[in-house]
Amino acid sequence: SFPYMNSIRVSLKNDTKFARSTGSLCQSKVCGDRIEGIDCGDDVADWLSDVLCINGLRLLRQKDEDQRLTKSTSNNDSKAQSISLSNQAQFLLINTKSVSWLIDKVPDWVDQPEIDTNTRLEGVVDRFRGNLIIDAPEELDEQNWQQITIGNIQFNSDGPCVR
């Protein structure tokens, strides 16, 4: 749903036979990997285009049989994990202290006196599209972490982000 718009529904049932009969299977690339997806249809595409004010959008759902795997950049000999349509991993941890450190190194970001420090930091953090945002004690601390525990869930590192 979206304010002032009719709601739209997307079936979570993976119906490959329907997709083949309607021609809604399509191929694309995600981070250099060829994937085959199921187009969710014109109604969904039109709704997304209207809501986001961007013409030509399509919503693709990954086929169950189409499995992309991590390409580990660490030396911890972990087995490749399924990452669906994510860039590099299912989760990307961002340390705000590291982003602040990076901002100080990029002249274009420092030379914006009209933007206050917190707004600038939030904007740059958003550019990395992380889904775990932390404030570690020091910048670049996370480069040496092999795992992090949140509550009773343990996340293992597959290595540094290449973005």
TrEMBL record:
Keyword Membrane: no
Enzyme Commission number(s): 2.8.1.9
InterPro entries hit by this protein: MoCF_Sase_C
Keyword Transferase: yes
Domain spans labelled MOSC: 57-163
Keywords noted in UniProt: Transferase
GO MF, one annotated term: molybdenum cofactor sulfurtransferase activity
Protein name in UniProt: Molybdenum cofactor sulfurase
Species assigned in the record: Euceroplatus sp. 1 NB-2020
Lineage: Eukaryota, Metazoa, Ecdysozoa, Arthropoda, Hexapoda
